[in-house]
Structure formats: structure tokens, C-alpha cells
């Protein structure tokens, strides 16, 4: 099992980086939890409506990954699995739903027929009009990928549960799971 844990978790970092990862996990995790909870409460197999492009099972997986993956991020439990589910969900939201649907990166409030801001391309920023934007999905995707690459940090349940199984690092130095 130690080999699998070493594969899934980079070294559990401590200090200020661990505090930063905790804040990132908590804020993103709670936001994802509330987005997913709304979908779970409203019908996890049909929250996209009757004419949805995604089958009910995929709608459920998206709602589940946001809701329970968000909670897992908050406490730092099974972070790689939670981050992978969230990354997959947010990649679909970013690229398949919003970008393919012609939504801009950011849609600002304004008149429906407003001109682009200071010559910025309409694919990046749009004032007014109908539709959404993909900045929030892209931010959540980036956070999930970041957590996959960095791990949850020492201020997590993962570090408490799996940090002690690490072998000592080479050169007789302190183990990679040193206490905070």
C-alpha cells in the first residue's frame, strides 16, 4: 500500500505552504460543496433538465463530485480522488459546455449590445448578453489540478492517515512526512 500512497501523494508540505493549501482547499471545497448540494437536492440525475446533452448517470457523477468532492477537499481526505473527479467535471464544464457553446471567459453586466472592452476579444470578455461564462469552472479546474500536483499539505486528514506510511527519504534525511 505504501507504493500506491507514494504514487498518489507527493510529499506532504508544511509551514506556510500547508496553510495556503488549507485555505485553498477550504474555500474552493465549500464553494464546490454548495454548487453540488444544489444539484443533489434538485435531482442529481436530472439537474440539467429534460433536454440535457449529458445522460442522467453523468449528471449524477458531476453533482456527486462537486458535493462530496468539495467536502473531501475541505478536510483534505482522499484529496487525489476528489481532485480528479472535480478536475474531470470542471474540464467538461469549461471546454464542452461553455467554450464550445461560445461563452466568454468573463461576462460582465452591461447593456445587451455593448462593444468589447478596450479592444479585448469577445472570447475573453463580453458585456451583457445571454449565456454564461467559464471563469469559475476554469478556476475550479486549475485548483483541482494544483491539488493533484501539490497534494493537500500537512494540514489535512490525508497527511494524518497516510503520512506515517512514508519511507525515509534518501541520504538519511528526515522523512517526507515530517510533522508540522
Could you give a quick summary of the protein structure above?
α3 packs across α4 (79-99). A two-stranded parallel sheet has the order 1-2. It has 180 residues and is mostly helical.
Q: How would you sum up this structure, described in words?
A:
The protein is mostly helical and 180 residues long. The protein has one domain. The chain is 54% helix and 3% strand. The protein is built from six helices and two strands. It has a two-stranded parallel ribbon with strand order 1-2. Helix 2 runs antiparallel to helix 3, helix 3 crosses helix 4 and helix 4 packs antiparallel against helix 5. The longest helix is centred in the first third of the chain and has 27 residues. The protein is globular, with a radius of gyration of 19 Å. It starts with a helix and ends in an 18-residue tail after the last helix. The C terminus is likely disordered.
Primary descriptors:
single chain; mainly alpha
Largest sheet: 2 strands, parallel
Helix/strand/pairing category? mainly alpha
Domain count: 1
Poorly predicted residue ranges: 167-179
Secondary structure tally, helices: 6
From the alpha carbons, calculate the radius of gyration and give it in angstroms: 19 Å
Topology (SSEs and partners):
Elements: H1 2-8, H2 15-41, H3 56-75, H4 79-99, E1 106-108, E2 125-127, H5 135-150, H6 157-162
Parallel strand pairs: 1-2
Helix pairs in contact: 2-3, 3-4, 4-5
Amino acid at each position: 500500500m505504501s507504493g500506491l500512497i507514494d504514487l498518489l501523494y507527493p510529499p506532504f508540505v508544511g509551514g506556510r505552504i500547508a496553510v495556503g493549501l488549507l485555505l485553498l482547499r477550504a474555500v474552493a471545497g465549500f464553494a464546490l460543496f454548495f454548487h453540488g448540494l444544489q444539484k443533489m437536492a434538485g435531482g442529481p440525475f436530472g439537474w440539467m433538465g429534460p433536454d440535457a446533452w449529458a445522460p442522467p448517470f453523468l449528471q449524477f457523477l458531476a453533482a456527486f463530485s462537486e458535493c462530496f468532492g468539495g467536502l473531501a477537499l475541505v478536510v483534505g481526505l482522499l484529496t487525489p480522488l476528489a481532485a480528479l473527479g472535480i478536475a474531470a467535471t470542471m474540464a467538461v464544464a469549461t471546454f464542452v459546455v461553455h467554450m464550445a457553446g461560445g461563452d466568454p471567459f468573463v461576462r460582465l453586466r452591461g447593456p445587451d449590445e455593448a462593444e468589447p472592452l478596450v479592444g479585448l476579444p469577445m472570447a475573453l470578455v463580453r458585456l451583457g448578453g445571454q449565456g454564461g461564462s467559464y471563469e469559475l469552472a476554469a478556476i475550479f479546474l486549475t485548483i483541482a489540478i494544483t491539488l493533484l500536483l501539490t497534494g493537500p499539505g500537512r494540514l489535512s486528514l490525508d497527511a494524518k492517515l497516510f503520512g506515517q506510511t512514508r519511507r525515509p527519504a534518501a541520504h538519511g534525511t528526515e522523512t517526507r512526512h515530517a510533522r508540522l
